[in-house]
Amino acid sequence: MKIFRIRRFIQVLATLFQNGYTGFLSTGNLYTGALKRFCAPGLNCYSCPAALFSCPLGSIQQIMISVKLLPWSYLGKVFLYLLGYLLLMSLFLGRFICGWLCPFGLLQELLYKIPFYKRNFNLPYRAQRYLKHLLLIFFVLLFPALFIKEIGYGILWFCKYVCPAGTLEAGYLNLLIQPALVQKIGLVFAWKSLLLILILMFCLMEMRFFCKNLCPLGLIYGIFNKFSLFRLSWIKNQCTGCTICEKVCPMQLTIPKELNSVECIRCLNCLEVCPTKAIHLEKSLQFLPERHQIDFAVEGVRDAKRRKSL
Question: What's the predicted TM-score (pTM) here?
Answer without folding.
Answer: 0.90
